[in-house]
Amino acid sequence: MSPTAPAGYRLTEITADRVEEYRAVDAMAFAEPARDPATDLAVPFAVPLDRAVGVETDGGELVAVHGSYAFHLPVPGGEVPCAGLTWVGVRPDHRRRRLLSTMIDAHLERSLGRGEPVSALFAAEPGIYGRFGYGSAADHVRLTLARGAALRDVPGSADLTVRFETLDPARHEDLVDRLQIAAGTGRPGWIARGSDALRRTAVADPAAWRRGGEPARLVTVHDAAGEPRAYAVLRRTQTWADGGAAYPVQVRSAAAVGAAAAHRLWSFLLDLDLTSTVTTGMLAVDDPLLALLADTRRPVPRTSDNLWVRLLDVPAALAARRYAAPLDVVLGVRDTLLPANAGAWRLVTGEVGADGAHGAHVERTDAAPDLELDVRELGAAYLGGRSLSALAAVGQVTTRDPAVLHRAATAFGWPVAPVCPWVF
Ligand SMILES: CC(C)(COP(=O)(O)OP(=O)(O)OC[C@H]1O[C@@H](n2cnc3c(N)ncnc32)[C@H](O)[C@@H]1OP(=O)(O)O)[C@@H](O)C(=O)NCCC(=O)NCCS
Fold first, then answer.
1. Fold match flag (9-116 vs 141-304)
2. Whether residue 384 has its Cβ less than 6 Å from ligand 1
3. pLDDT by residue (tens digit) across 347-375?
4. Rounded distance between C-alpha atoms, residue 366 and residue 129, angstroms
5. For the structural domain made of 141-304, what CATH number should be given?
6. What is the pLDDT of residues 296-352, one digit of tens each?
7. Cα(65) to centroid(ligand 1), Å
8. What is the pTM of this model?
9. Whose Cα sits closest to atom 16 in ligand 1?
10. Looking at ligand 1, which atom is closest to the CA of residue 89?
């Protein structure tokens, strides 16, 4: 590997015999609880070994690790091969010696070598990844709703039936995966779990994860033909207070295909006996539930950053998505880590597809840039969830021509908010 590690360290591939060491480094970095055999059985190790890389000392002790998943990242109007960066950890006694920086260099180079024009991640702390060109590209919201919160009517909801059962990984893995993929059709960022190990993790429920709550339950909503149209994985926790039962309901994940199924699902979840509140999992900021709630003021929202996106191959990445309006713009891009991206790129939209959006052609140009920005800001705007105008308002995008900025912000925007519904 060509990236150079600091003196005393070297990058190393992770072979099967070093997986336990790899996991031990990550466990130290993240203060993981001690592992137990039942959890290991239920939650498979999911990082592909040909994408797992570490840093060891000259003496051969592994002290830093990372890995990536081979994803297809849904982008506005399409999808793009994407390296999902994960399992990033440096032992506390080796931190701040540029080991993460070394690993990021390796990650960028290897991802590009595999033909992945984009990388994405969830950040453990928001201060880490901007310096490496990752931009915060999406938010999610979690709502805590009072039992009985009213929903606006949706025709057909009452015709759907509901089943409530104990989550069974072997039986429900496929159903949960299919419904989740179907529910996010057309939504940027909605990454499908691309491997058996990740699909299994989505329905795993080892006792160590229950924290005093019941085993995970599965709610499914079915149409007249018995076809599942929505699901939720949830856990209630027995809680008796002075006023009586006040069980919280924690929804781990939920997805619905169509408004009637969403209405039926949430109506059921909001009316469980003995419960007091329902806390949702990660929702897009325009999730259908928000439009269904009769009272949007009372639920307590918690908003947080979701996907961070890094463009590794700027022209390939920009050409892989579609644009909401016609555009002819020259982008002046700064990229200190990947200089091949730096400089002026002309983006010209072309044909209009059935979705009304425009494809684009991107090429090098000598023309003066209309907009200047760091690759980080391009990553932030890439999924259509952050406005170039908003970034310009705080100086992160600059232009001499407000009209061009307005047109570019409109074209880069997208009517469906990006979100990834699960953390990797
Ligand atoms: C976060 C972590 C991976 C950083 O590793 P590291 O080897 O110490 O990072 P580096 O020495 O390469 O630091 C590179 C730069 O990032 C900065 N940085 C590192 N961690 C940071 C953090 N948590 N917040 C803000 N800045 C951070 C460093 O100060 C340094 O800045 P500089 O270039 O201005 O000098 C490591 O501290 C760790 O494992 N933390 C716990 C687990 C974790 O959060 N993992 C990330 C998962 S998404």
1. yes
2. no
3. 999 999 999 999 999 999 999 999 999 99
4. 30
5. 3.40.630.30
6. 999 989 999 999 999 999 999 999 999 999 999 999 999 999 999 999 999 999 999
7. 13
8. 0.97
9. 128
10. 39
